[in-house]
């Protein structure tokens, strides 16, 4: 098995940077004619995987929208994750887990160990108990050729107070997180390491200390495209030298099309993916 960074690079090179979010929140379920239930979330997720396969290389199920239905929701999520990986998609579980010690190890086993019912290619993690608290998850990822995306600069306005705070009057908290992540990627084969960062497309990343030099070689999961305001043609302007490392995540702007049926959803994915592959986005 090749490393996660290599698989991610191959997916971006083959299909472009678009990542389709799988967010079965209640309004979308009802718009699609589905019940707001675990069964509805499962059907929503499987339809999205089917429409995405062969059109993009990456999908990102939002765990919370399955978790809300309890054990049945997790069973639905297991089916969606397995379907995505079976279809050859890179599957990022957007779980934002973060804890310490054996609890973190438990999250790592759930999302990153081969054979786990929730096995994914990568998982999102929160470092705000300290990046060392993620050691178990990051070690597990490296051991099993998996990946992780660590929150660095998120787009919610209240995050800046914490993420832009200065550490020892030098680097920002977000920059410290980025440096800690970069250290995990040293020696990784290929142009991308296996451990990435979450950097919102709608934030001024340099205000967080996330310059091109700091981000070099690190995969970047960038929510904020589509309904949140950033467009494919903004990718190069927003991320400059590191634009080729970006996974551009869209959810509502794509998923809304599913209300008109599977063909409309597939057509919307084709349309958006083509925009990210166009010269204007590079």
Automatic annotation (TrEMBL):
Catalytic activity: orotidine 5'-phosphate + H(+) = UMP + CO2
Record organism: Microbacterium flavum
PROSITE patterns according to UniProt: OMPDECASE
Domain Orotidine 5'-phosphate decarboxylase: 17-269
Keywords, in A-Z order: Decarboxylase, Lyase, Pyrimidine biosynthesis
TM regions (residue ranges): none
Gene from which the chain derives: pyrF
EC number: 4.1.1.23
Pathway this chain belongs to: Pyrimidine metabolism; UMP biosynthesis via de novo pathway; UMP from orotate: step 2/2
Family: Belongs to the OMP decarboxylase family. Type 2 subfamily.
InterPro entries referenced in this protein's UniProt entry, alphabetically: Aldolase_TIM, OMPdecase_AS, OMPdecase_type-2, OMPdeCOase_dom, RibuloseP-bd_barrel
Molecular functions per Gene Ontology: orotidine-5'-phosphate decarboxylase activity
Signal peptide: none
SUPFAM superfamilies per record: Ribulose-phoshate binding barrel
Name assigned to this protein: Orotidine-5'-phosphate decarboxylase
